[in-house]
Amino acid sequence: MHQSKLNIESIRAEFPVLHQQVNGKPLIYFDNAATTQKPKSVIHAIRHYYEFDNANIHRGIHTLAERATAAFEDTRVSVQQFINSREKEEIIFTKGTTESVNLVASSFAKAFIKAGDEIIISGMEHHSNIVPWQIVCEERGAVLKVIPVLDHGELDMEAYQKLLSAKTKMVACVYVSNALGTINPIKKIIEAAHSVGAKILVDGAQAVAHLDIDVQELDCDFFAFSAHKLYGPTGVGILYGKRELLDAMPPYQSGGEMIKEVRFEGTTYNEIPYKFEAGTPNIADVIGFKSAIDFINNIGKIHIRKYENELLEHCTNGLKNKVTLYGTALQKVAVCSFVIKGMHHFDAGMMLDAKGIAVRTGHHCTQPLMERFGIEGTVRASFAIYNTKEEIDVFLEAVEKLVK
Ligand code: PMP
Asked: Who contacts 28 (Cβ-Cβ below 8 Å, separation ≥6)?
């Protein structure tokens, strides 16, 4: 196997949290699909903001307000370049993927969904890309359709084609499954949605840390993700949307910042992105997020992907004959989801934790997907750039003991 040239030890040195003992053992953090750890540069940027620049943004004319505003807006430009949107105004800050999806569901539906319209989601969606659309359907009398999942954890693309029709107004689909690791053929999914005149929202929560994202090339209408899954702070999300759609959609929340002029007789709204950014945002963490993007760019997604693929292959080979793996698609990110015969996933998770190994257990907020496979949940090990094959070996040995 080709060995990656990255200096993983020096990358690990950037992550203070990794260097500790848990239950008397060196921490092995394999819960990266839930949230990644943060490098020093992100922690320092947040600390620097509170120590030197803390002020509310956009409205102040004093120096601190100007510094805070400039740093906040710098992150917007970084995100624009990171996902290659046409304009920085198409980047809206939210508190996470969940809020980004809720924003689109609520606001897009008010503008464009009526009784009898159809919305398509997939059978491997996270709850945060299911429930908002169920609510839209209840409120507006629309109909929810679901793309089935095949045995290896891939979407049934033929069935998808058959679900599409002139009634389809929105397709909301995950790029990379958090529970299985499957990379969906998102470009084809987007093209098919557009061929019937539907709009498409891509849940990119698990994709952005591993894959190059170019929203213009993808031609998606909306793209949602969370900073905390790509080495950034919690409480920051991104919604990318095409200008013409964002301009046509009503505000999601209302109050300060999203207005142009307020009179008791009526209010006019601000331009995008501010129309969708009511109230004081999470200034410090948005500023910290820029350092996370810089961290990823400095390594390069191509190198990250290559190295994580080596980890995935190593772990998959080690698990293959010992456990039942769920999610064996050809195109995958570094996620191993599995069940140990005769052992509840919670027990497995607790026993691994006793050895300092952090994995996620349960339904991973994808209950319908678990039901599809006839299971309650899995043990999920998900890898990031700072994980090592040596850690995987310790993990495989621990799993082997559980199997026995
Ligand atoms: N979609 C996917 C695919 C996810 O993995 C997650 C997080 N587990 C979410 C949506 C929700 O993200 P957040 O909790 O950051 O809003």
From this structure: 355, 356, 357, 358, 387, 391, 394, 395
